[in-house]
Amino acid sequence: MSELTLPQPYLLFLGDTTEPGYAKTAFGLRDWAPERCLGEFSVAGATVTTGLPFLTPAQAHAAGARAMVIGVANAGGFIPPSWVEALVEALRAGLDLVGGMHARLRDFPVLRDVAAEHGRRLIDVRVPPSPIPVGTGKPRTGKRLLTIGTDCALGKKYTALALTRAFHARGVDATFRATGQTGILIAGGGIPMDAVVADFAAGAAEMLSPDAAPSHWDVIEGQGSLHHPAYAGVSLGLLHGSQPDVLVVCHEPGRERVLGHPDYPVPGLRDTIELALRLGSRTSPRIRCAGVSLNTGKLDPQEAQRVIDAESERLGLPVADPMRGGDSFARLVASCLA
């Protein structure tokens, strides 16, 4: 896997997004790489904001920005026509463009032409390495933790990043392994699992977390959900190829319907844990669930703690919100390392 060297700092582009869950790239960069983010830019119709200053591309360039990053990960990863004018504006203002969509910037002739005219770069990060082998299922040295979820966009990346940071604080040798465009932008490398041909997904996960020292932990960012009507295949390939020793299940209390698929209910935590352990044991016979990560960002602190405590008692597992930290998160970290 090659490491990325990206032009920094960034202007975060939110398009015309109205669903916060689809702006997870922008929020992820704001929260985990704030020193690289100068502001945000959007087009008419957008209602989502990161809270960063609103800057035009010209203003951002004058303030020191060197790239505009598409901060949206919409269903299907497409770039709608309503964004193109704003992307052109950024190139003309002197900014490179960084995209993490399935639609690649270089596939738009107008962007190629304007970039060439102004000496700017079009950088697509949702491009898997080549070649990728078919998965082997062979055991590997080292230790592995995979975050899995009851749905998309509810905290798998944040949980993996928070656990990696907590492992480091305890003196544990650990590496965050990015599997999506946002994680790759934060970590500077990784494999975009949802851009890998299905037959090679498990092999890509094996590449992502190779043999390591016995005490080393790879903390692997999960994708999708094993119950998801569209993305379960990505989740299963990642689970089999990662061969995790430990799972941490991620969930958002109060989310009742799958994001973007309202006809489908979000599965329960017990069902998710049982399914993941059953499927994961195919390539990792001693797999275990260390606990649950709850995204309680929509709850006040008292209600969040009540939900955390109740779920921990109900499931008989450590439950925490990594972004709130505290004793419950310390217990989750200890359970992962036990």
From TrEMBL:
Domain D-glutamate N-acetyltransferase-like C-terminal: 134-326
Positions of the D-glutamate N-acetyltransferase-like N-terminal domain: 47-128
Matching SUPFAM superfamilies: P-loop containing nucleoside triphosphate hydrolases
Top-rank taxon, per record: Bacteria
Pfam families linked: DUF1611 (PF07755), DUF1611_N (PF17396)
InterPro entries found in the cross-reference section: DgcN-like (IPR011669), DgcN-like_C (IPR035086), DgcN-like_N (IPR035402), P-loop_NTPase (IPR027417)
UniProt-recorded name of the protein: DUF1611 domain-containing protein
Source organism of this protein record: Noviluteimonas lactosilytica
